[in-house]
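User: Can you predict the 3D structure for this chain?
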Amino acid sequence: MDEQEFKRRTKRLALRVIERVDELPKSRTADVLVRQLVRSGTSVGANYRSVCRGKSTADVLAKLAIVEEEADETIYWLELLIEAKMSPKAEVPGFYKKPTRFSP
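Assistant: Here is the predicted structure, written as structure tokens:
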């Protein structure tokens, strides 16, 4: 996957998060989880754009680690919403996939 495709995919993730959260139930607990999901889900793409401006290999790898952490955090918030029965897994098709470890 090239840089442009990854930018498109991470932006698509952010947009799907934004669209999905408006469909979730309104409660104090859901609001906290949703806020966290939106922050992590939208930061994946923003941080990847930062990767593309890396100044050295070490800088790029450090920034990619942040992208990976944010993606994993997004999965965590989705898992909580699913396991707390606030969002059935069936309602997030293509959104929720098993995480894989990034290997440079």
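Residues 25 and 31 are 9 Å apart (CA to CA). Residues 57-83 form the longest helix (27 residues).
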